[in-house]
Design a protein that fits this description.
Blueprint (H helix, E strand, L loop, with lengths): L1 H10 L8 H7 L2 H25 L2 H5 L3 H26 L8 H13 L3 H10 L6 H27 L6 H31 L9 H21 L3 H11 L5 H29 L7 H29 L4 H11 L4 H12 L5 H25 L16 H7 L3 E7 L5 H11 L8 E10 L6 H11 L14 H15 L3 E9 L4 H11 L4 E5 L2 E3 L5 E3 L3 H12 L3 E6 L16 E7 L3 H14 L4 E10 L14 H4 L3 H24 L9 E8 L2 H10 L5 E5 L5 H4 L12 H9 L8 E6 L30
Parallel strand pairs: 1-2, 1-4, 2-3, 4-7, 8-9, 8-11, 9-10, 11-12
Antiparallel strand pairs: 5-6, 7-12
Length: 766
C-alpha cells in the first residue's frame, strides 16, 4: 500500500505534476470528479472491512495490560498533538478553527493503524507471539477510541458555528449507532444464519449487505459526521462468527485493495505538494511533528509496558509497533483537508510524518526484539527419537497440518505414538499452516490468532461451527480422553518462508521430530492428486533446515476411522530396516509405538547374501553415504539388540497367558532386488510402513527406483508410493534423523531429478 501512495505523490504536484501539461493530459479536470468518486466509494468499503476486523467481544476480553498500554498509547500522544497544534497555529496554520484543529492533531498523532499493524506483525512473524497479541489487542482499543474522537472532530468542524449544531450531530450519531445495534444487527445475523459452513454464500445476501453499507454511509453523511463512519459502524456490529463474514471478505477485498484503494492513493497523492514545505521554519516544524508523534506514542507505551512488568525488549517493540500509522492516518488527514481544518502545508507535513513512522516500524522492531533466538546447546538435547528413547525423557512431537482433512490421520498417529500408559510421556504440538498472501485480510489473521493463540482452547460457547473450532474441539476431545498433551498452534506466513516458522517453533518447543503431510493426497480411484505443489518445497526446506528429526507422512487412509484413545484401536505397522541413521530413527519410533497395546509391529531386516551383486542402475550415488561405515554397523546392531530385548521382555510378560507377542522380528537374506520386492509385497497388508529416507548398506545402495518427482521420500518411500513393483494401500512414514553435520544424500534418485528449484516463489494472490 505504501508503494501505491508513493506513486500517487510522484504523480502529484510534488514531482511529475509540477508540469501543468502532464497534469492536464493524464488527469484532466473533468476526470478528477470520477476519480474522487471511485476513490471514496472504495474507501467506504475499506472502512467496512476495518470495522469487520474489530470484534467487540474481543475488546471485552482485553486484559488489563493491553488496555493500559492502549490508553497510554492514546493519551500521551493526544496531549503532544494538542501541544503541536499550538505551535502550528502560531506559525503556518493561522486562521484555522481552533477546536477542530486541536482534536484533529491529537487524533492524527495518537492513532494506530490496526490493519497495517496486523500485516506488519504477520510479515515479521510476530503475529502469534505474546508481543503480537498484546499489540493487536491494544491497537483494537486504540482504533475504536481514535474513530470516536475523529467523529467528534468532524462534528466540531461542521459548517454551522452554533454549539447546537455540534450537539445535534453528536446526538444524531449516537441515535444512528443505537439503531444499527438494535435493528440492523439482528437482521444481518438472520442473513448470516442462512449461510452455513461449507456452502457457497448466496449472491443476494452479499448485494444486500453492501447495500446496507452504502445506506449507512449516506445516513452518516446526511447527519454531518462523514460517510466513512456509517460503513465502519456496520463493520463493527457485523457478526464475526460463521461463514458469512469470511465469504464477504473474500468477495469484497480483492476489488477494494486491487482497484479502489490505488485510486484513493492517487487521489491523495494529487493533493500532496511537498514543495509547500519551504524554509527552515517549515522543515523544523516537520521535525517537531515527527518527534512529538514518535516520542508520545513510543515513550507512553514503553513506560506503561514496563510498569506492567513487560520485559524491556518487548516494551520497546510494543512502542514501535503502536507507532504504526499507514493508510488509516491518511484517511484522517484527507478528512481534515476536505473539511478545511488542514491547509496544504500542514497536510504535506503530516503525510510525510505518516510515511516516516510507518517505514521505521519494521527495522526498529527487528533491531530490538528477536523472539527467534536459538536455544543454548545444553537446553536442546533430545533432537531425535533415538536420543529421547535412550535418555528416557518425555517425547515431544510436532505435527503440521494444512486443513481439517488432515486431523483424523493426525489423531490416529498421535494415539499410536502414545506408547505405554505412563503419565506425561508424550507432548504434541499441532501446527496449522496458513498462507499469508498479498491479499490476506487482517480480519482473517487476527481472528485465527484469537482462536488458536493463547489461551489455545476457545472458551466461547457460541456454537460456532467454523473449521478453526472443529480443529480445537477435535484436539480438546483427544486430550480429555487420553493422557497426551496436545497444543494447537498457528503459523501464518508466506509460502516462501513458512518453513522458518516450523523450524523455529520446533527449536523453541525442543521437539524430537516434526511430522509433515505429503503434498499429494489419494483420490477415490486410488490415484494421486497434488494438493498444492508449494507444500512439497516446504517439506524439502524443513528437511534441510530442521533442528530435529523430520518425517513425511504419505496418507492412504490412516485416519479413515477416527478412533480416539479407544480400546479397539489397532494398527499393523511394518519397518523395513536396511541400516543407517534414518532407518534406526524409524525403528526407534516404531518401538515407541509398539508399547501401545493395540499396535502389531513387524521389523524386517534385509541382509545381503554372499551371492548378492548390486545391479547396474542409473542412479547418482555418493559412495561414503551408500554403504555403512563400521561405526554405523555397530550402532545398527545395538539397535537390533534393543529390539530383541524388547521382544523377550514382552514374551516373558505374556508367558502366563495365551496371547502372542505383538512384535515380530525377521531377517531376510536376499540374493537380488526381486527378492526385496517380494518381501515387501508380503507386508503389503500393513496399515503403516516406517522407512528411513536414506537407507544405507549394499542392499539399499543399488535399489532400482524409477524416475520420480519426489526425491524427498527416498528410494524406499518412492518404492512404496509410486512403484509398480510393490502394490500396497498402506500409509508410509518416511523418516530422516537429525545429525549435526548432515550432508543430504542423493541415493535412489536419478541424476535428472537432482536439478530442482532452490527457492520457493511467493504464491500468487488467490
Amino acid at each position: 500500500m505504501a508503494s501505491y501512495f508513493e506513486g500517487g505523490i510522484l504523480l502529484g504536484p510534488s514531482a511529475l505534476g509540477k508540469s501543468s501539461k502532464f497534469l492536464t493530459t493524464v488527469f484532466p479536470p473533468r476526470s478528477l470528479t470520477v476519480l474522487d468518486t471511485l476513490a471514496n466509494l472504495g474507501l467506504i468499503f475499506f472502512l467496512f472491512l476495518v470495522g469487520l476486523e474489530l470484534d467487540p467481544k474481543s475488546l471485552k476480553r482485553t486484559g488489563k495490560r493491553a488496555l493500559s498500554i492502549a490508553l497510554a498509547g492514546i493519551t500521551l500522544p493526544f496531549i503532544f498533538g494538542i501541544g503541536t497544534s499550538f505551535a502550528l497555529r502560531s506559525t503556518i496554520a493561522d486562521g484555522v478553527s481552533k477546536a477542530p484543529f486541536l482534536v484533529f492533531m491529537g487524533v492524527a498523532l495518537s492513532i494506530t493503524a490496526f490493519p497495517v499493524l496486523a500485516r506488519i506483525l504477520a510479515e515479521i512473524k510476530l503475529l502469534t507471539t505474546d508481543v503480537g497479541k498484546i499489540a493487536l489487542s491494544a491497537a483494537a482499543v486504540n482504533d475504536v477510541a481514535a474513530w470516536i474522537l475523529l467523529a467528534l472532530a468532524v462534528a466540531l468542524s461542521g459548517d454551522g458555528n452554533s454549539p447546537l449544531t455540534s450537539l445535534w450531530v453528536f446526538l444524531a450519531g449516537c441515535g444512528f449507532v443505537l439503531f444499527c445495534i438494535f435493528v440492523v444487527q439482528p437482521g444481518i445475523k438472520l442473513i448470516a444464519k442462512r449461510c452455513p459452513e461449507g456452502e457457497p454464500v448466496n449472491e443476494l445476501y452479499v448485494c444486500c449487505t453492501l447495500g446496507i453499507v452504502l445506506a449507512a454511509s449516506f445516513v452518516t453523511d446526511l447527519i454531518g459526521i462523514h460517510a466513512l463512519f456509517g460503513a465502519f459502524v456496520i463493520g463493527v456490529i457485523f457478526p464475526k462468527e460463521g461463514n458469512f463474514a469470511n465469504a464477504l471478505v473474500e468477495k469484497v477485498e480483492d476489488l477494494v485493495s486491487g482497484l479502489f484503494l490505488p485510486l484513493y492513493f492517487v487521489s491523495s497523492g494529487l493533493k500532496t505538494d511537498v514543495a509547500t514545505i519551504q524554509g527552515a521554519q517549515s522543515w523544523g516544524l516537520l521535525v517537531l511533528v515527527i518527534f512529538n508523534a514518535c516520542f508520545g506514542k513510543i515513550v507512553g507505551t514503553v513506560l506503561v509496558s514496563l510498569y506492567c512488568k513487560v520485559p524491556l525488549d518487548e516494551s520497546l517493540a510494543l512502542g514501535f509497533l503502536m507507532n504504526t500509522k499507514g493508510l488509516v492516518e491518511l484517511i484522517v488527514l484527507n478528512i481534515g483537508k476536505d473539511r478545511g481544518v488542514l491547509n496544504d502545508q500542514i497536510f504535506a507535513i503530516m503525510v510525510l510524518m505518516a510515511i516516516f513512522t510507518t517505514f521505521m516500524t519494521t527495522p526498529l522492531v527487528l533491531a530490538v526484539y528477536k523472539p527467534g533466538k536459538s536455544l543454548a546447546k545444553g537446553d536442546y538435547q533430545n533432537r531425535t527419537i533415538e536420543e529421547t528413547k535412550k535418555s528416557n525423557k518425555p517425547l515431544r512431537l510436532m505435527f503440521c497440518f494444512q486443513s481439517i482433512m488432515n486431523i483424523p490421520t493426525i489423531v490416529n498417529l498421535i494415539e499410536a505414538s502414545r506408547g505405554s500408559n505412563r503419565k506425561e510421556t508424550l507432548s504434541v504440538y499441532a501446527m496449522h499452516l496458513m498462507e499469508l498472501s498479498e491479499r490476506s485480510s487482517a480480519v482473517l489473521m487476527a481472528h485465527k490468532v484469537r482462536k488458536n493463540g493463547l489461551p489455545f482452547w476457545n472458551k466461547d460457547k457460541t456454537g460456532n461451527n467454523s473449521s478453526s473450532d472443529m480443529v480445537v474441539v477435535a484436539f480438546e476431545a483427544f486430550r480429555r480422553l487420553s493422557r497426551v498433551s496436545v497444543r494447537p498452534m498457528t503459523a501464518i506466513s508466506a509460502m516462501a518462508t513458512i518453513h522458518e516458522d516450523i523450524c523455529q517453533s520446533a527449536e523453541r518447543k525442543s521437539t524430537a521430530m516434526v511430522i509433515l503431510p505429503f503434498h499429494k493426497h489419494v483420490r477415490l480411484d486410488r490415484t494421486w492428486e497434488t494438493t498444492r505443489n508449494d507444500y512439497r518445497w516446504i517439506n524439502k526446506k524443513v528437511m534441510e533446515e530442521a533442528p530435529c528429526s523430520v518425517a513425511i507422512l504419505v496418507d492412504r487412509g490412516l485416519g479413515g476411522t477416527t478412533r480416539v484413545a479407544s480400546s479397539d484401536f489397532s494398527l499393523v505397522i511394518t519397518v523395513l530396516f536396511f541400516g543407517g541413521n534414518d532407518d534406526r530413527e524409524a525403528l526407534a519410533f516404531a518401538m515407541r509405538m509398539a508399547e501401545h497395546p493395540g499396535i502389531s509391529l513387524t521389523v524386517v531386516r534385509f541382509i545381503p547374501s554372499e551371492e548378492f551383486k548390486p545391479e547396474n542402475v542409473k542412479l547418482e550415488i555418493i559412495e561414503d553415504q551408500a554403504s555403512c561405515s563400521g561405526d554405523t554397523k555397530l550402532i545398527d546392531i545395538e539397535a537390533i539388540s534393543d529390539l530383541k530385548a524388547m521382544i523377550e521382555e514382552q514374551e516373558s510378560s505374556l508367558s502366563n497367558s495365551d496371547s502372542e507377542s505383538l512384535i515380530v522380528y525377521e531377517e531376510k537374506i536376499v540374493k537380488c532386488y526381486k527378492e526385496v520386492f517380494e518381501v515387501i509385497k508380503e507386508c503389503s497388508k500393513s496399515n503403516l510402513f516406517l522407512v528411513g529416507k536414506s537407507p544405507e548398506g549394499s542392499v539399499a545402495s543399488g535399489l532400482h527406483v524409477e524416475r520420480s518427482d519426489t526425491p524427498e521420500l527416498g528410494p524406499i518411500g518412492n518404492l512404496l508410493t509410486a512403484s509398480e513393483n510393490v502394490s500396497t494401500t498402506a500409509s508410509v512414514l518416511v523418516v530422516q534423523q537429525y545429525t549435526a553435520s548432515r550432508v543430504l544424500p542423493v541415493v535412489g534418485v536419478t541424476k535428472d531429478i537432482t536439478t530442482e528449484k532452490s527457492l520457493v516463489e511467493d504464491s500468487e494472490s488467490r
